[in-house]
């Protein structure tokens, strides 16, 4: 069952919010993400209310000033609570900080709630900001019979579907479908999927289709009703998980590329089913006897500062 929500402290008043559209495709679409300068005034109940009030699925709270070591603290929230990581939220935070810096190029280290340091960089391209960051190590394993038995029927997929469990912050299912048409036709039982993800302690399910002709990108849809997001417009961390999986299976770079040399990973289209096209890019740098380094990124547009009003009750 879903964990109980914390009681509201009754905080009220206007909260300045910067809306960032993260992971645009050709300068349009992307995932609207609320970015708030974190002054420590809001409690977690108030933070949970910001996404819906801002017209976003996620909100990222960015430390008002860098910490002693130079990193900037970030916290990610949906309506259901806090997340240890959020890929498109990281793109949004990096774009927001680049706007604050006002420079053509900017490097920034973020610190997530679990203490992980996220190294990112941005480049301004007119009104747009291209951001990328080190996603961190991805753990991959075969799903259990129980996991497949609960998740695949809820997704409407056969039990023979190709699937992996990938962990980056939190575990999630990666499931391949036969084609883009099959991906577009998916109509999961969201209530059953939400319960299954709660029972299995999973973030959600990332379904994807491989290209069918040269030059075509991967396509994906991410269903995460257990965290209050029936379908995500853009999920960069799950795309990083896909890149790690393709590298481990020998799909990238024609096999086993030389350690230390970056290999172009999949570029993945998302958001089409929601009317907001998004694209996420990846690269993979193989290590020697260690997990590969996956970098993930996207283009962002900072649309300006507004306010979300928290009301009592």
Search tags:
single chain, 313 residues, alpha+beta, Diaminopimelate Epimerase, Chain A, domain 1, 8-stranded mixed β-barrel, globular, isomerase activity, Phenazine_PhzF-like, PhzF family phenazine biosynthesis protein, isomerase
Structure notes:
With 313 residues, the chain is α+β, with helices and mostly antiparallel strands. The chain has two domains: 13-133 and 299-310, Diaminopimelate Epimerase, Chain A, domain 1; 139-295, Diaminopimelate Epimerase, Chain A, domain 1, CATH 3.10.310. It has six helices and 18 strands. The chain has helices at 44-54, 87-101, 145-155, 180-185, 190-200, 236-248; strands at residues 13-24, 31-38, 58-63, 72-78, 81-83, 105-111, 117-125, 128-134, 139-141, 163-168, 170-176, 205-209, 218-224, 229-232, 263-264, 268-270, 278-285, 293-310. It has an eight-stranded mixed barrel with strand order 1-2-3-4-6-7-8-18. A hairpin with an 8-residue loop joins strand 12 and strand 13 (218-224). The chain is globular.
Short description:
This protein has 313 residues and is an alpha+beta fold. The protein has helices at 44-54, 87-101, 145-155, 180-185, 190-200, 236-248, and strands at residues 13-24, 31-38, 58-63, 72-78, 81-83, 105-111, 117-125, 128-134, 139-141, 163-168, 170-176, 205-209, 218-224, 229-232, 263-264, 268-270, 278-285, 293-310. It has six helices and 18 strands.
């Amino acid at each position: 069952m879903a964990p109980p929500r914390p009681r509201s402290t009754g905080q009220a008043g206007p909260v300045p919010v910067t809306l960032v559209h993260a992971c645009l495709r050709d300068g349009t679409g992307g995932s609207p993400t609320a970015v708030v300068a974190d002054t420590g005034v809001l409690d977690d109940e108030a933070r949970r209310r910001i996404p819906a009030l801002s017209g976003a699925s996620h909100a990222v709270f960015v430390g008002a000033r860098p910490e002693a070591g130079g990193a900037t603290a970030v916290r990610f929230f949906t309506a259901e609570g806090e997340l240890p990581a959020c890929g498109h939220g990281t793109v949004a935070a990096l774009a927001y900080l680049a706007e604050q810096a006002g420079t053509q190029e900017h490097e920034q280290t973020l610190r997530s709630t679990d203490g992980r340091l996220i190294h990112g960089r941005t480049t301004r391209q007119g009104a747009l900001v291209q951001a990328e960051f080190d996603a961190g190590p991805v753990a991959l394993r075969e799903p259990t019979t129980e996991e497949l038995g609960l998740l695949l029927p809820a997704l409407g997929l056969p039990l023979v579907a190709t699937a992996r469990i990938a962990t980056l912050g939190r575990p999630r299912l990666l499931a391949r479908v036969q084609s883009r048409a099959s991906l577009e036709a998916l109509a999961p039982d969201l209530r059953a999927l939400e319960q299954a993800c709660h029972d299995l302690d999973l973030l959600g399910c990332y379904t994807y289709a491989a290209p069918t002709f040269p030059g075509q990108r991967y396509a994906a849809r991410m269903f995460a009703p257990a965290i209050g997001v029936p379908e995500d417009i853009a999920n960069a961390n799950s795309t990083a998980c896909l890149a790690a999986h393709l590298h481990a299976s020998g799909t990238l770079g024609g096999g086993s590329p030389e350690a230390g040399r970056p290999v172009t990973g999949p570029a993945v289209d998302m958001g089409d089913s929601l009317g907001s096209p998004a694209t996420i890019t990846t690269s993979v740098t193989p290590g020697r006897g260690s997990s590969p380094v996956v970098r993930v990124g996207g283009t962002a547009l900072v649309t300006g500062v507004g306010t979300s009003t928290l009301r009592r009750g």
